[in-house]
Design brief:
The chain is mainly α. It has a domain of 40 residues. 64% of the residues lie in helices and 0% in strands. The longest helix is centred in the middle third of the chain and has 16 residues. The radius of gyration is 24 Å and the shape is elongated. The relative contact order is 0.05.
Length: 84
């Protein structure tokens, strides 16, 4: 394990201590469980820069607006689409 230091608000620490006593586990264990839960829910949203770059390059040229003046009038088209 890697040792780290985390600063908590007083309320957070107080509640963690109460949970620690109730479930008879260390505060550190509760923090590790909370980190694991966060990582499980956020894992899908963590994308490496290489993967982001690959996705951006793959999207180039895949979508066609049919508008010949899109570069000049993108604000107008965006406003129209936003009003829908």
């Amino acid at each position: 394990m890697i040792r780290t230091q985390v600063q908590l608000e007083e309320r957070q620490y107080r509640v963690l201590k109460e949970l620690s006593a109730r479930y008879q586990v260390a505060v550190a264990e509760l923090v590790r469980e909370a980190v694991d839960m966060l990582l499980q829910t956020k894992r899908e949203t963590v994308v490496s820069m290489d993967e982001r770059r690959r996705r951006a390059i793959a999207a180039v040229g895949r979508f066609h607006s049919g508008k010949g003046d899109l570069a000049e009038n993108h604000d107008v088209y965006f406003a129209e689409a936003s009003a829908l």
